[in-house]
Specification:
18 helices, EC 2.7.13.3, Beta-Lactamase, five-stranded antiparallel sheet, 4 domains, 552 residues, Helix Hairpins, membrane, alpha+beta, nucleotide-binding, histidine kinase, five-stranded mixed sheet
Length: 552
């Protein structure tokens, strides 16, 4: 009997033993309740196979242990399936009336109590769970007590050697076995919980890493990680774009000096080397890949007190900010020019008018030989007066009066004057106007001055037999003006300063013509840009945005 009892105890331990092996793989933990229900059902069937049946018909086995364990850990579904299997095996074995009574009592009293304890079991933990299991085990033993008393009462006639001592020992083994099984199962469940928590932490960590990586890649910053030797270990998307046509794989595991050389970095010295030597934060404004960047280079450490684990290089694109700064400086210079023009206009023009008047009077009374000199002096006075007028036009900061007119009509009005200038220089005028042209609010005087300045600049840049092309286009959002010459062209380093006051590429220029053109275009909600190739020519593009359209 006792050998069979020990065998049944080992079988009852089967779910806990299998569970310890089964949960070794983290991906299985989501099926814990299903596995324990199936394992307990298997253990219950094996316990039935090795059950002990007395001559009086009383059955002693440990199948009740898998029933309790599987019901508690498997939930309501597992408990239902286990009780169905338990009922089928029990009904097949019942031969005595008293045993049937015990089973009916089990079905009517114990099973509802078992189901009512399942939610509390899942909400609790540790010692609380052991108490719930102990209450269920005692309740089950109490229900079996009536049948045992009946069996012991009938043993005098059967001769079976079964005493109260054996039954108490059997019940003690039952209690000890179920508590030990719960203990080992709880150890497994704790490891399952740890694995789940570890999996959740790993998923959160990977998600955070992906978010951080996406932030680094999508941020408008150059981000480069280097080791202490200056070898690049990580670059973001913007750094890869700056180093185009090289890709990320072409940059990784190369020295930072290689990246600096490929992007034409204008740093005075390698910032990675400098930080690696001094371990101090270094900031610098430098040009990288044709753009201006504010850069920060520093060492990064896991803890402030630890040794550097590498060097971090961050670059913020300040090209637009620098352009705005340059624009503000240009506006400040224009404002200074306006103040100068406003303050000296009346002081200079009045004496010049008097001087010119007396020179004209002297010219009339002088000999023919001297009239040539007087004419030269008066031409220079007129030129000085024209310069003052340009000052005044450039300094204007008032609301100009505009009227709706067509750019084509203005060009037709200026065509005779432009043809005369071109013929005098031996050049050709090629006028290509759009078939249809929308009206724009314009100040006719200023737009004519703009057209004359740009056209004469093109003519002055060309030799004889050159062709000046003037073209207009009418698009959905804007009116486009294109003036192209076949002159000597403008060097790239001079294009950036072309619209600055007093900057000129001509020998006798004042440097105010193009600055005045830019001022006129901006007052008419337009933009102007220049394309030039040395030895080929220059093209001025002027775009006027139509009213109510968002062109920029």
């Amino acid at each position: 009997m006792w050998k069979d009892s020990l065998l049944q105890i080992l079988v009852a331990f089967l779910p806990a033993s299998m569970f310890i092996i089964w949960y070794a793989k983290p991906e299985r933990t989501r099926y814990t309740s299903i596995f324990l229900s199936v394992a307990c059902c298997l253990a219950m069937l094996l316990c039935t196979r090795f059950a002990i049946v007395t001559p009086s018909g009383y059955i002693t086995d440990f199948r009740d242990i898998p029933l309790i364990i599987g019901s508690l850990y498997g939930g309501f579904l597992g408990a239902s399936l286990l009780f169905v299997a338990y009922a089928v095996t029990k009904l097949c074995e019942i031969e005595q009336t008293n045993t049937l009574y015990v089973f009916i009592a089990l079905a009517l009293l114990f099973v509802p109590y078992l189901f009512s304890r399942i939610p509390a079991f899942h909400r609790s933990g540790g010692n609380r769970r052991l108490k719930i299991v102990l209450h269920l085990a005692c309740a089950l033993l109490l229900l079996n007590g009536v049948a045992r008393v009946t069996v012991l009462h009938g043993l005098s006639d059967s001769g079976e050697d079964l005493s109260w001592t054996d039954l108490v020992a059997f019940d003690a083994l039952f209690i000890i076995a179920i508590l030990l099984i719960v203990h080992f199962t709880e150890l497994g469940m704790q490891r399952v919980q740890l694995q789940r928590q570890l999996t959740e932490v790993s998923i959160k960590y990977r998600n955070e890493m992906r978010r951080l990586q996406q932030f680094i890649d999508n941020a408008p910053l150059i981000v480069i990680f280097c080791d202490n030797e200056g070898t690049i270990t990580h670059v973001n998307e913007m750094a890869s774009k700056i180093a185009f046509p090289l890709g990320r794989n072409d940059i990784l595991h190369r020295s930072f000096h290689f990246f600096a050389r490929q992007t034409n970095m204008s740093a005075e010295e390698n910032p990675i080397t400098r930080v690696g030597q001094t371990d101090a934060r270094h900031t610098e404004v430098m040009r990288i890949g044709g753009k201006m960047f504010y850069t920060v280079t520093c060492s990064f450490k896991q803890l402030p007190s630890e040794v550097s684990n590498g060097i971090l290089f961050i670059g913020h694109d300040i090209t637009e900010t620098q352009m705005l700064k340059d624009e503000v400086n240009r506006m400040e210079r224009l404002s200074l020019v306006g103040q100068m023009a406003a303050s000296i206009t009346h002081e200079i023009r009045n004496p010049m008018a008097v001087i010119r008047g007396f020179l004209q009077l002297l010219n009339e009374r002088s000999s023919p030989e001297q009239q040539t000199y007087f004419r030269i002096v008066m031409e220079e006075l007129d030129r000085a007066n024209a310069i003052i007028n340009d000052f005044l036009s450039l300094a204007q900061n008032r609301i100009v009066e505009k009227e709706s007119c067509s750019l084509n009509e203005l060009l037709h009005e200026l065509k005779p004057l432009l043809l005369a200038d071109a013929n005098m220089r031996g050049q050709t005028l090629d006028l290509r106007l759009s078939d249809s042209m929308d009206l724009l609010p314009m100040n006719v005087k200023e737009i004519k001055q703009l057209l004359l300045n740009l056209a004469r600049n093109g003519m002055e840049a060309m030799n004889a037999s050159g062709v000046l092309k003037i073209e207009t286009r009418n698009t959905q959002d804007m009116i486009q003006l294109r003036i192209e010459d076949e002159g000597v062209g403008i060097a790239p380093e001079k294009l950036e300063k072309l619209f600055e006051p007093f900057y000129t590429t001509k020998t006798n220029g004042t440097g105010l013509g193009l600055a005045l053109c830019l001022s006129i275009v901006e007052r008419h909600n337009g933009k102007i840009k220049v394309e030039s190739t040395l030895g080929v020519g220059t093209v001025f593009h002027v775009h006027f945005c139509k009213p109510g359209r968002d062109c920029w």
